[in-house]
Design goal:
Layout lengths: L1 E9 H7 L12 E6 L4 H14 L1 H4 L2 E7 L6 H8 L6 E2 L18 E5 L4 E4 L6
Parallel strand pairs: 1-2, 2-3, 3-4
Antiparallel strand pairs: 1-5, 5-6
Helix pairs in contact: 1-2
Length: about 130
């Protein structure tokens, strides 16, 4: 189990923001990643870019949402994330696919990848 702020979003947009004031700060965070209609070679390139910026190393764990690519990107995601030795929970119902459940980005959460559980640690709606 790991805990941290829930940050992230669309993979291609996160990569595009690298080096700008709006880049995602993944230090100690649970990094949510999803994407829509990217070719596998592009998913590989985008993850490589995030790794080279230090974003993947900085994250405490990963929450993978929907990927609507024609080919399943699971092997590419595993190749990039498994070597980091951090918890990875895949198949979360959020992103551009269906179902698309809202995630309260910025909220504190804990991730138990083995149990398949994401728990919010704060009230986000009152």
């Amino acid at each position: 189990t790991t805990s941290g702020r829930l940050v992230g979003g669309n993979l291609s947009l996160m990569a595009s923001l690298c080096g700008t004031p709006w880049a995602i700060d993944a230090r100690g965070a649970i990094l949510f990643i999803e994407d829509v209609s990217e070719a596998l070679y592009r998913v590989d390139r985008l993850l490589t870019q995030l790794r080279q910026t230090g974003m993947l190393d900085a994250a405490a764990g990963f929450l993978l949402g929907s990927f609507t690519e024609d080919a399943d990107p699971s092997a590419v995601l595993r190749e990039h994330l498994a070597a980091l030795g951090k918890p990875v929970l895949a198949g979360w119902p959020a992103g551009h696919g269906r179902p698309n459940r809202a995630l309260p980005l910025g909220a504190m959460a804990s991730l138990d990848a083995a149990a398949g559980v994401l728990t919010l640690q704060q009230t986000v709606l009152s």
